[in-house]
Structure formats: C-alpha cells, structure tokens
Amino acid sequence: MLKSLWRFSALERPAQTLFLRALVMLPLVGLSLKFRGFEATRSTLRKGLSPTIQQADPDFLKRRVSLTAHMVNAADRHGLVHPSCLVKSLTLWWLLGRQGITSELRVGVRKEGGNLEAHAWVEREGIALNEPEKRHHHYAAFDAALASLPKEER
Q: pTM of the predicted model, to two decimals?
C-alpha cells in the first residue's frame, strides 16, 4: 500500500488528476451501462465534453493521449473493480474529450469456438490507444465509430 502511495505521489499533477478521474469514472460508467444502457450512458458522458482543441501542438497531444490511456489502464489495475473493455474505452474516450482531444470509440466482433465475442477500444487517427497488445486486430470492427468528436481543424 505504501509503495502504491509513493508511486502516486511521484506522479506529476496532470497524471494524478487523470488517474483519480479514471478511478472514479470506471465504476460509475460500469454502473451506468448496467442500469441505464449504452445510449443513455454515452449521452450523459457527451454532456461533459470540452470543445475540441484547435491548432494544438501535435507532440503535446501525443503525450497527453498516451498519458491519459496509461492512467486509465493504471486505474483499472489498482482500482477496486476491473471493468469490461467497453467501460474502460468509454472512460478513456470521455477523459480525452474532457481535454478537447478527439477520439473514436470502436467496437468489433469475432466468432470464437461457436460463440460471438465483442471487444471495444478507442482510436485516434486510426491508432488504437488502449490496446498495447493489439488485441483489437482479432475483431472485425463496425464501419462507424459508436462515439466520436468532430475532427480538429488543421
């Protein structure tokens, strides 16, 4: 426990904030999906998004996207609940949107041993953000994103 607290205190303030938001949002998004469904959850999350960042430094955005995805994964590992890929992806999508960073929630399906399986992930500019092992490559993605923000103007 002390080691975890020490590691948390060693993080910079933006990382701490993202970690704490993810830690709170993961169970809330999970409960909302369970009791209210996908559409109501997505609609509620959309209300808390910030305007899209215009003309932002690409290096800054890349670092911020990476940090946000890392903090959601850390909150999943160190939190009390271990949510589904849809919950984690919706949380990441929302946290990015709160920062004005565009992204898309993607869902894919596959047939494995006679069972239909689904998987969710978040993409930005065609790159999966929360997929370090590229698990999403084993799923056929739906053509349209389930949740996205308008693209940045260049």
A: 0.83
The answer to whether residue 110 is domain-embedded is yes
| Position 40 in a domain | yes
- Domain tally for the chain? 1
Which residue range is the domain that position 32 belongs to?
2-148
Q: Which amino acid type is present at position 55?
A: Q
Is 86 contained in some domain?
A: yes
pLDDT digits over 120-147, tens only? 999 998 888 987 666 655 566 666 555 5
The residue written with tokens 């349209």 in the block is 144
